[in-house]
Amino acid sequence: MPLHDHFHPPFSRILSWGQFRGQWPGVIVRQLNTTLPPQYRAGPTVHLGREAEIDVGTFASQSSWPATRGQAGNGGTAVAVWAAAEPTLAVETDLADFDEFEVRVYDTSRDQRLVAAVELISPGNKDRPQQRSQFTAKCAALLRHGVSLLLVDVVTERCVNLYADLLDLIGQSDPSLGEQPPATYAVACCWRPRGASRWLETWNRELKPGLPLPCLPLWLTEDLAITLDLEASYEQTCRDLRID
């Protein structure tokens, strides 16, 4: 089944992208758990940015800290609270939060160690510079800790390539991206040793509506990879959601 454009008619009228992205990670998890070696398992992770917030006021009211400085609560011992100096900066701002739709692969023989992640990029990840920077910083941190990555971006409504942003963050570039990196793509990334040094290796494929999705390697160790068939999982998701 060819890739659909889920952000423009006619498919945007059939099913929202939010509904599709909610189903796709689960399908990838089922696919991976039938092909992963026995010591590995895959599971989905979904975080909807600001749609999942903690009630900070409620948390503070239930905190175990004393209500006033230097006073004991319920007969306890008084706690000396450090009086901080005036801050050097105090500005009204906002800490960026972003959507996460990903599949994580764990090595159960090594205390559930995270070894690989499949990131399904959402429009929110490509929206503002803060979201883009936070997302690429997260990806760089995962690679640095030996977690292989596979980025899947089918968002056609924002002409941003987060793979190019990730490379720019670490001071590299990929000639396969051309002068104008495509808005939709899938890329596998891993940071592996070569002798005394480490090398970033990537497998980049442009995605185009109307064409099938590729198969890409998902690295579990420095020497072991399995194939992630994006076309198979995408096609199954479309069938599950009754999209022709």
Strand content: 25-35%
Q: Largest sheet at a glance?
A: 6 strands, mixed
* Radius of gyration from the alpha-carbon trace, in angstroms: 22 Å
Distance between the termini: 9 Å
The total count of strands amounts to 8
H and E string:
HHEHEEHEHEEEEH
Low-confidence stretches: 50-71
Specify the structural class: alpha+beta
Neighbour order of strands in the largest sheet? 1-2-3-4-5-6
Number of helices, counting only DSSP H or I runs of 4 residues or more: 6
The best one-word shape is globular
Mean pLDDT: 83
Number of domains: 1
Helix content: 25-40%
Map the helices and strands.
Blueprint: H1 11-14, H2 17-33, E1 40-48, H3 56-61, E2 99-107, E3 113-120, H4 129-144, E4 148-153, H5 162-169, E5 185-194, E6 197-206, E7 215-219, E8 225-229, H6 230-240
Parallel strand pairs: 3-4
Antiparallel strand pairs: 1-2, 2-3, 4-5, 5-6, 7-8
What does the model show?
- The chain is of the alpha+beta class and 244 residues long.
- It has one domain (11-48, 95-240).
- The chain is 25% helix and 25% strand.
- It is built from six helices and eight strands.
- The strands form two sheets. Strands 1-2-3-4-5-6 form a six-stranded mixed β-sheet, sandwiched between helices. Strands 7-8 form a two-stranded antiparallel ribbon.
- α2 packs across α6 (230-240) and α4 (129-144) packs across α5.
- The chain starts with 10 loop residues before the first helix and ends with a helix.
- The model is unreliable at 50-71 (pLDDT under 50).
